[in-house]
Amino acid sequence: MIVEEQNLVTKNAMESLSQAQSSFATQKKKEALAIFSSMPMPKEKEEDWRYTKIDNFKIENFELNNNETKIFAAALSEYLIEKGVILTDINTALEKYPIAQQYLFKNTKIDKDKFVALGASHFTNGIFLYVPKNIELDEPIRVNFHFDEKSSIIHNIIIVEPNSKIDFIEEYSNKEISQEQLNACVTEVFANQNSKINFYHLNTWTKNVNNFTNIVGTIERDAAINWISGCFGGKLNRLRIDTIFDGQGSQCNNIGVFLGKGKEHIDFTTNMHHNTENTVNNVLVDGILKDESSSVYRGLIKIEKQAQKTNSYLANHILKLGDKTLANSIPSLKIEANDVKASHGATVGQIDEEHIFYLMSRGLSRESAERLIVEGFFEPVIQKIPSEELRERIRGLVKQ
């Protein structure tokens, strides 16, 4: 039974998905295992891992072949089932549906990242969501992932066919144990022609979790993906979102928030790959660091030569509370085309002591003053989140 306080408010009943085994998945994982075994562990000196202390992380300390994840999903209505919407566990999907086999690892670069290869070679569970064309869902699809033991390794596939629109909400959590824990997740998202996906990702980890989540979305002609993500907790909490613009008129908004405390480390990456002309992107990631926490934000806008008329922007703002926090922001542009609009902005700053003094002079304690400033810092980005439910959820996590 999933922990109640970790749940999002749901209007649809939640049901547990099975953990069936798939012969098709077994063969694919065997192929990926050879790649995983041949790849060295990443080093902090590598660009993709700079400012994240990964050198001493021992992947062999975790139970890679004995991992288990509990998945709870919102039950589909009879109407959606009749229309052909599918929501099931990944193993069942790979046995029953050829389209699941067709899309597995379609946009996953297994040989580029050790933890992506880990997910491809060792996943035991995950979800498969398929939405046929011309379907507009009134209620969001909701999924909760929860694990109790040392490790969780999952793979998800989401396919939205032309002219369909969905909201998808996923939340990750765990039961704390005395040992370090590992979550490795790869999610592939496909927005086909003129479709729209609002994708909400929220993780709330306990202090011993090492999280490596990779999400990659492909956007076809006139389609859109809006990413809304929040990272809270974890010893090492790494979230990477890659967006691939493969169709003219494709669009993306990427809104992210994170909060580090204690000795937590947040590693947040957004990569935007513009491969065709007339695409639009806007990224805003804001974070706050408390105590002795640290973070790194990497934001890449890559525009290929043929991707003329691109309009792409990213911004990152980090507020530090205390001298022992450490924040790094690395925005970058790689532009091959000559008729584009592309820019970035980043700020890292300490909390203003004058603001603290002013609030304390009005009768607030320092703790209350800091809390008020933190809430005010996040509020502009929270206001951009389309879902009121998620806005309130994130406000609650910020206040903790």
Descriptive account of the structure:
The model is unreliable at 1-10 (pLDDT under 50). This protein has a ten-stranded mixed sheet with strand order 1-2-5-7-9-11-13-15-17-19, covered by helices on one side. The protein has a nine-stranded mixed sheet with strand order 3-4-6-8-10-12-14-16-18. The protein contains eight helices and 19 strands. Helix 1 runs antiparallel to helix 5, helix 6 (353-361) crosses helix 7 and helix 7 (366-382) packs antiparallel against helix 8. It has two domains: 15-350, no CATH class; 352-400, no CATH class. It has helices at 23-38, 78-83, 90-96, 98-103, 114-122, 353-361, 366-382, 388-399, and strands at residues 14-16, 70-74, 86-89, 127-131, 141-147, 151-160, 165-174, 181-191, 196-204, 209-219, 224-232, 236-245, 251-260, 265-274, 280-289, 294-303, 311-320, 326-335, 341-350. By secondary structure, the chain is an alpha/beta fold.
